[in-house]
Amino acid sequence: MHFFGPLISILSSWFLLLWNSGSRINKLEKKSMHPTQIQLNRFIKGFLFFTILSISLNAQKEAGTYEWTNLPKELSDKLTDSILVTHNLQENTGYSVAIIHKGNLVYSKTFGWADAEQKIPVQRHSQFPVASVTKAFTGAILVKMANSGKLDLKAKVGQYLSLPKDKSNIRIEQLINHTGGIRAYRHNEKSSEFLSTHYDSALDAMNIFVDDSLLFEPGTSYRYTSFGYNLLAALVEKQAGEKYTKYVENKLMKGMGLKHTFYDDATVKRKKRVENYSIMSPYQPYRPNENEAIIKIPVLDHSYNNGGGNIITTAEDLAKFGNAFTKPGFFTKEELDLFHKPIESSTSSSWSHGWFVSNPPSGDLQLFMTGAFSGTQAGVFVYPETQTTVAVLSNCWGKGSRSGDLVIALPRRLASMVKEN
Fold first, then answer.
1. CA–CA dist 124, 143 (Å, integer)
2. Angle 43-49-55 (CA atoms, 0-180°, nearest 5)?
3. Residues 137, 56: one domain?
């Protein structure tokens, strides 16, 4: 990375000094030197030579963007061109894409900078925040817990948690499909103080909203809310008997082989976590600054939202996660049925257990989840019938990001290209 240059320079100087010294010794003092000393000098010179060569090659590897594909070159080039159109239009800082088709990774590519100031490029294992894509993970752990008998998805939340009476009567599936009546974020609620407060557990974080009035009678209307998913996280935490984040990492992420997927923790520095950039302030969401200049986003604490928006992952890991919903394997057929169709409801909610579900008459079944906040864009689209999954991640909220092109239109285009191949 950025430190390789000075290190190579120092080692090169040592090598040249030793080499020149050895040359003078060979010419002037070789006869008087012990054979063991001569062999030692040769060993040291050889060791330094190969050390410098290895570091140099690694530096070159780190300096370039990562790309892997087993698709025909023409198709691979079309995918890249389509990505670059959106990436360049929004002037995003960094970006990563991964596509799995019929169980195999067929395309993985990174673009731009993980850290623009230090000139560290996005690499294969760069970890991006995914914001609300986290909800798909929460839905997955809930289905697994239900299947193991640890909870009943149709039961009232009050059966498992001690809550105010109005919250106790909400059914778990009503929280999952956003029909429980839990409030969303208030205007200007995400202040600098709010985004710097750390919560050690989901049970602690639910105190932000648990005493607030419901927006409507459970089951009678729809309102998207991350707080509802944080109440679900508190429920999981109570039933599991351990912190929500640790339980999900152990039972879900490790079980699925997601080696580069974690809950973000503002108190811990992860070497592979990207920096984040945006044209809008994190304290005034969706309001671009005056000149739409991209600024670096400070470290923010999203521990208030572990159930609804605080996972970091790679594009390949996210695609692997999505692929698990295409056919029985990690999930049983009965579990997959819960993800592949919306939860029965008297409202117009199109949510299954953690996913938006779309099944148009003329198209394939589609599961998708997107996420965004200042400095982050993420999307994962899953097509079970063709076993195609597309994951897209960016560490930047660039120009025109509200259009959704990068996290909705683009992954749909990429999936269409691969399915038609």
1. 30
2. 130
3. no
57 & 152 share domain = no
| Residues 276 and 191 grouped into a single domain | yes
Looking at the domain assignment, is residue 200 inside a domain?
A: yes
Q: What is the DSSP string of 346-407?
A: SS---B-SSSEEE--TTS--EEEEEEEETTEEEEEEEETTTTEEEEEEESEE-TTGGG-III
**What's the average model confidence in pLDDT over 113-119?**
95
274 and 187 part of one domain: yes
Cα–Cα dist 186/175, whole Å:
18
In-domain check, residue 85: no
Q: Supply the range of the domain harboring residue 47.
A: 4-63
8 A C-beta contact, residue 392 and residue 367 = no
In one-letter notation, the amino acid at residue 46 is G
**Residue 365 CB neighbours (<10 A):** 16
Final residue of a structural domain among 15, 46, 63? 63
What are the tens digits of pLDDT across the range 88-111?
Answer: 999 999 999 999 999 999 999 999
DSSP state at residue 253: I
Domain membership flag for residue 284: yes
Q: What single-letter DSSP state applies at residue 64? A: S
The DSSP element (H or E) to which 5 belongs, if any, is helix 4-28
CA distances 220 to 164, 214, 325, 349, Å, are 19, 12, 29, 11
Which of 60-69, 142-151, 160-169 is the least confident region?
60-69
pLDDT (0 to 100) of residue 15 = 40
Number of domains, the chain: 2
Identify the pLDDT of residue 111: 95
Average pLDDT over residues 399-414: 94
Amino acid of residue 224: Y
Q: What is the token pair recorded at 158?
A: 């009050």
In a domain, residue 345? The reply is yes
- Looking at the fold, whether 250 and 153 belong to one and the same domain comes out as yes
Strands 262-263 and 311-313: antiparallel
